[in-house]
Amino acid sequence: MANGLRVLGIDPGTSTTGYGVVEVRDRSLISIAHGVITTSPRQPFPERLQVIHRALQTVIARHHPDCAALEGIFFAKNVRTALQLGQARGAALVAVVETGLQVFEYSPLEVKGAVTGFGRASKAQIQRIVASLLRLSSGLPTTDASDALALAICHIHGMDLQRRMATV
Questions:
Q1: Is there a catalytic annotation at residue 26?
Q2: Residue ranges per domain, the chain?
Q3: Which CATH architecture has domain 6-167?
Q4: Whole-prediction pTM value?
Q5: Which of the residues 23, 105, 110, 144 is marked catalytic?
Q6: Per-residue pLDDT tens for 141-167?
């Protein structure tokens, strides 16, 4: 693992967007920060997108990640929900690219497989494994925050695998 690498994971959502910053230190994964950005359904939708955008810019300015990992687009049964989620992703993507960070996208299946070894893991399993990998003693992060941390971990593991394969 690349010592000092700091990755911002983002799990976009319209009411709750999870974020997590993970750093590699001495071959260990360290949680620098994690949490959620919440918006009120009573707010006009464009204002909710602005809240997500501004909060992520603050996270980036405060924690200085090297890159960002976001959950990729997936198919939803409800068209309206899918469109709104796409707009929340867009707000998150713009916040990241405005700061010059490179963005990497992973499907939920890829993230679950990288973190748990099982692509159909439950949210509770992700929470427990992420807390264990990051040695979080203060309890389990929310599911949105743990999903964001899992995205960052997935990217770090993927980069490590690519580096190893390049040396073979």
A1: no
A2: 6-167
A3: 2-Layer Sandwich (3.30)
A4: 0.93
A5: 144
A6: 899 999 999 999 999 998 755 555 456
